[in-house]
Amino acid sequence: MVEPGTAALPPASPLGKPAREPQQPREPDPPLTGIWTPERQSLRAEMLKQDATIGGLYEVAVDGMDPAGWSMPRLVTVAHCVREICSALPHVLGIDGLPPRSDTSAAGHELSRVWSEHSDELGAAEEAAAVADTDNTTEPQQPKALVRRTVPNALIVAAAAYVVADVEGSRNARKVRGALVTGTLTENHANITTFAKTQKFFISYVHLSRPVRALPTHAVALGHFERVEIVLRARVEQFFKSLAAVETILVAANRKRGDA
User: Fold this and answer.
1) pLDDT tens for residues 196-241?
2) Which residue of 52, 138, 157, 211 has the smallest Cβ count within 10 Å?
3) Does pTM top 0.70 for this prediction?
């Protein structure tokens, strides 16, 4: 009999030890049809071994790349998956020296707070922004009027903190990209520059613009997606034995698909 407030133990094994909890059944592999090639099945399995969420995002992305029903909603979904996979996988793999994610939101909020605090001296931020927009419409050959004003030191400090956070964020993003592509903490390699173009392609579709951009052809999007898979396979499957091999196949993919 189990006393109130206590949990019942699993039934004892023949050796007198509690039996193991039954394992959850493994989700079946996607069918080997259409977009799901044996290579993608294998990569999915390796991604799931590293992290269930990352592997699941890859599966969603592959499903989204199915040419049947190709659409902007599918591309937006794939773009989100690619962004999160590329950002998280180097950390999941435990590559040494990775920087933490840099967030500019706190510095931005502080800058906004300081401006509001000194709005009597500076005026409303919306008014200053409107003046800047007006200045930007000036003909290039005509010098813009230089407006001098006294700026509170607190605003300079807050603005500097925002700039530092923004620069640090860009630098950290390059380091994470380098770790994903090369497996080491580096920012300078031809492969990184090549892969940055593919990341930029997907990032441009993470959020819908207004007016909504035209849907790229499936062939163009698939070319970029295959470059992502080349890099993922190099990291989790150790499919390529050297960085030079990754470079060779990325160059070949670029020639085949173009940089569109």
Assistant:
1) 899 999 999 998 877 778 899 999 999 999 999 999 998 888 655 5
2) 211
3) no
Question: In this structure, what token pair is assigned to residue 197?
Answer: 């173009």
Residue 193 lies in a domain: yes
**Residue-level length of the chain:** 260
User: Is residue 182 a part of any domain in this protein?
Assistant: yes
How many independent structural domains does the chain possess? 1
Side chain identity at 255, as an amino acid letter?
Answer: R
Residue 229 CB partners (closer than 8 Å, separation 6+)? 39, 40, 43
The string of DSSP letters for 211-237 reads: SPPPPPPHHHHHHHHHHHHHHHHHHHT
Share of the chain above pLDDT 90, in %: 32
C-alpha 160/C-alpha 164 separation (Å) is 6
**pLDDT tens-digit series, residues 87-121:** 899 999 888 877 776 667 777 787 778 777 776 66
- Is 51 inside a domain boundary? yes
Q: Which domain holds residue 230?
A: 38-100+177-257
Under 8 Å between Cβ of 66 and 40: no
Name the token pair of 259: 């940089």
Which residues sit opposite 12 in a β-bridge? 18
- DSSP letters, 87-155, are HHHHHHTT-TTPPPPP--HHHHHHHHHHHHHTHHHH--HHHHHHHHHHHHTS-TTSPPPPPP----HHH
Whether 95 and 184 have beta carbons less than 8 Å apart is answered as yes
Chain-centroid distance of CA 140 in Å reads: 37
Per-residue pLDDT, 118: 72
Structure token digits, residue 43: 């990569």
- For 157, residues 6+ apart whose C-beta sits below 8 A from its C-beta are 114
